[in-house]
Amino acid sequence: MSLSSSTPHPNSSGSAKVVLGHGSGGKLSQDLLETVFFPYFKNSILDENHDGAILRFGNQKLAFSTDSFVVNPLFFHGGNIGDLAINGTINDLSMCGALPQYLAASFILEEGFPLHDLKKIVQSMHSAAQAANVLLVTGDTKVVEKGKGDGVFINTTGIGTVGNSITISPKNAAPGDVVLINGNIGDHGIAIMSEREGLEFETTIESDTAPLNDLIQNILEVSPNVHVLRDPTRGGLASTLNEIAAVAQYGILLEEKQLPIQPAVMAACEILGLDPLHIANEGKCLVFVPENEGDVVLQKMRQHPLGKESAVIGKVIREHPGKVLLRTAIESLRMLDMPEGEQLPRIC
Amino acid sequence: MGEHANLEKYKNAEYVAHLSKAIKAVSASLGTVKLMHVCGTHEHEIARHGIRQFLPPTIQIIPGPGCPVCICPVESIDQAITLAYQPNTTVLTFGDMVRVPASHESLEDARRNGGSVKMVYSALDAVNLARENPNSTFVFFSIGFETTVVGIAGMIKTGIPKNLYVLLANRYMPPVLKLLMDVHDESIQGFLLAGHAATITGLHAYDFMEDEFQLPCVATGFEPVDILLGIFECLKLIKNKEPRIVNAYPRAVNEHGNTVALQLIEDVFERKPGIWRGIDIVDDSAFRIKEEYSFLDAEKQLDCTPPYPPRSHPPGCDCHRIMLGELLPTNCKMFTKTCTPSNPYGPCMVSPEGTCHTWFKHGSGKISLTHTAAHTI
Fold first, then answer.
1. What would you report as the CA-atom Rg of chain A, rounded to the nearest whole angstrom?
2. Are residues A53 and A157 located together in one domain of the fold?
């Protein structure tokens, strides 16, 4: 056996297999989409490369999105797989500028899973849907034999209405746009990691899972010109910004000093050798608006309970198209690449 | 997290700018200077913070064999893999180690093919796992330099469960500096010593560099200000022709090292010649478990001889020359093309402390921006 064949490249044909990194949200996920899914499903709506699809029915625009949840552990500080699944799809719809309305949920349950825990999860889903003012209107349940699942997997799919004047897309990022975020980064990934690995820090780090629809509606009220909205989930800010830069074909300059990170998360990252820019978030959104609207949007975001720590963290530049640059705290510049492979598997 | 807050001043842009100026001034008359560091964390932090952007083009910082995962001999990984396939036996090791390609496969491949391999965060995790599963055999595959070997010594000294064995592949850094002097034909003019390793050994372990080679060495910390200070001190010694061993990381390192830790190491381990992957056998550089503790030495108690001969680096791989500082990752034809972190060909692309992985992730070159774009928000 040669060395190269013992570590098959996921792209090579024949013996190639799915690896965990394919689910990381980073480069390998992108590869999987481009080499396996896009060639077959290619169409103008999918080609938009958005968090959800924008559908037109006469004069009415609808956003349509789906997401599956396989997080391990199922229960963690700040939430569980239930509210994560509701918030995840609400946020994907919100990132299209939509007002989420209806959700569907599918459950894949493993034989032997305690009903008591299932009830807790469903209860959280109910509360999350209520808080976001959406209705769960259809669903499905399947059970697999013990050992063939991992407790519970949940898929949620949602639909929402989009105002006719709203055209939000990563393609719209334009030089001069400022990039804002609604608060601290890395909380979700580190919360899951510490729970799973039994790591203890001085402070309990909680997942940031939250529905962003209300915050987004507030932003759209003061700035109908929002160019891009995106939630930096798997793969963190680095992945999401690289995706946007690649689609828009402009550069993005990120300022390390402006990044809101809570000290406990920073410390955890330093101990574990992780980069907070690669860690998943579940209640954060990146907002690209023209420079002259940056202040008013920032103020509006800070007034919202989910945006108190909002900050301007970067801007879109003409140079280095398709790339993300980071100006470090000591004023040097480096490329910020998409993470390769998985940092932490099964975080959502 | 108060300690984190304390480190902030070592990432201060003003101090960095000040040191950058001082380095330019002290090196103005020196011509080209090659300094080598021997620590993966140094390279990682240098690339992550773009430290080379603050140095004049005449000052080259060359990454040496400082990544413990990269220099871990293939023979030891082969042994660990062999153990992983044995019935009722689980190999425990640090995350980075799992993906390093050995003669035929990595520990990760072995796990995929039915071997038992688990990742742990510390030696203590290994003890706990062995205690919780008294009917299984566990082998802690230990790698790292003098910094990590202390924890293993402590673990062994305090007593470990009977079902836990240690496969020791730890290495001792100071002797390899001699070898580097030979390889580089004295073109290296100074060394930045790994601050955490020096915290254990103290400075005297490097006295031979002053006595035999008359070469300055500076114990250097890991934040941007620490690293630039280490470089500045080293250049100052070169300029003043003072080949001394200097401590530029006094908040952690003292002259005599950590005497408690040194005693622990001495109690449990001895040092013999040992292989550094792709480099050579280096005298006095391999920690071995003393006879007194041989009952927990996996090499002596378990059958860990692989059924194949070792192959330390695959054809075409330049990792060994990169580890020696003879080549940079960008000189390797495979770098970023057929060798990436998700599909590593050689060991330096696997560990986040490996030079190739670091350069892949953070880049190495200078990035330019026009004035308008460069304006801070």
1. 20
2. yes
